[in-house]
Amino acid sequence: MRLGLLGFADPAGLRLQAWAAQVHEGWPQWRSCDPHLADAWMINGASVDVLGRDEVVIRHPFGSGERLTLNRAEVDRPLAFATPLPEGFASAEFFEADDELSVRQRLQRFEAWLRPLRSQFALGAEVVKRNGLYKGVVHIVHEGKLLAVIDFERWQAGLLIPARPVDLAMAEWVQHPGLSREIPSSFIRLPLHRVMWTYAVRTRLDVLPERYREKTVYLRRVPHVPARWFDEVHLLLMRELLVTPTGFDRLRERTGVEASELAHHLAVLYHAGGLTTDADSARRAEPAARRAMTALQFDQGDHESDLRSRVGLTEQMPPSSILREAPHSPLRVSTASVAPGDESPPSPVRS
Predict the structure, then answer these.
(1) What pLDDT digit, counting tens, does each position of 220-251 carry?
(2) Do residues 228 and 303 lie in contact, with contact meaning Cβ atoms separated by under 8 Å?
(3) Which residues lie within the region annotated Disordered (predicted)?
(4) Is residue 34 a contact partner of residue 4, using CB atoms and an 8 Å limit?
(5) Bigger pLDDT: 54 or 208?
(6) 331 — phi, psi (to 5°)?
(7) Mapping DSSP to helix (H, G, I), strand (E, B) and coil, where does residue 129 land?
(8) Which of these, 336, 303, 304, 313, lies nearest to 59 by C-alpha position?
(9) What are phi and psi of 89, to 5 degrees?
(10) Helix or strand or coil: residue 331?
(11) Residue 7 — φ and ψ, nearest 5°?
């Protein structure tokens, strides 16, 4: 899971990163990242200024002149504030940043809110384990209960909302002629490429097939995910491969991306249906891929112009609306004026 730390300075921020990264059996592992890309936020209450009932300004990083505004009515992921909270500011979601137990309890609360996201991750992991073994429709069943339906022909999935990641990992994959491809109305309906992106972008495992290290890699299509889900490396790799398909080592030399990071980003694009090693398939798809890249660049430009920063990668919103798609990141570069003698004016956000 990806954790955004807002308004913390060293050493508090480093201490929180270390505690969050600890591995606890049966629980997800957290890693800190650009706050725009995070699944949950921890915010330093001492760095918060209150503008109104719902709007706050966060000095981020703490001690700098950069500021972010956050409207709590637009928040699309779980968050908590480290005490002390600013005067006149109330929140039921708070923790003690210098207490490891308090931090761990808060992370576990985040994990409970984010169960649908974790279940998508678990489903994606099971698909990767069985890559190429199934076609058509599969029912995923645990202890007689249907947890998920996958239609590999239509590249669609349905997921039972209360399904636990551990149950998906232990479930049986059922396939036989005449199996219904209908997704129950109570299930979340998801394009499978989004499920696979959710898994591949978060896993720490190397899930890039070996042939993508040995053969020429082609851009087959721009993955059908929101423009804000792509980071700079995804965009760079797609542009490079569209111009000149190439092998792994040559791509690393051309882009300057370190080998493990390159493998991770290529794996994300591959599992979301974006890459191929089949030259004929890539050639047939090239016109559509070029059009999609052009449209994506316009989308990215519009978002960057509007926000003056990179936008968020996650669309999760706790709890019942956890799959609702937000039009932008709730974090915006502050336009609030800076008092004389205060820090320098805000500048674009950096991770």
Answers:
(1) 999 998 887 888 999 999 999 999 999 999 99
(2) yes
(3) 314-351
(4) yes
(5) 208
(6) -85, 125
(7) helix
(8) 336
(9) -110, 125
(10) strand
(11) 80, 10
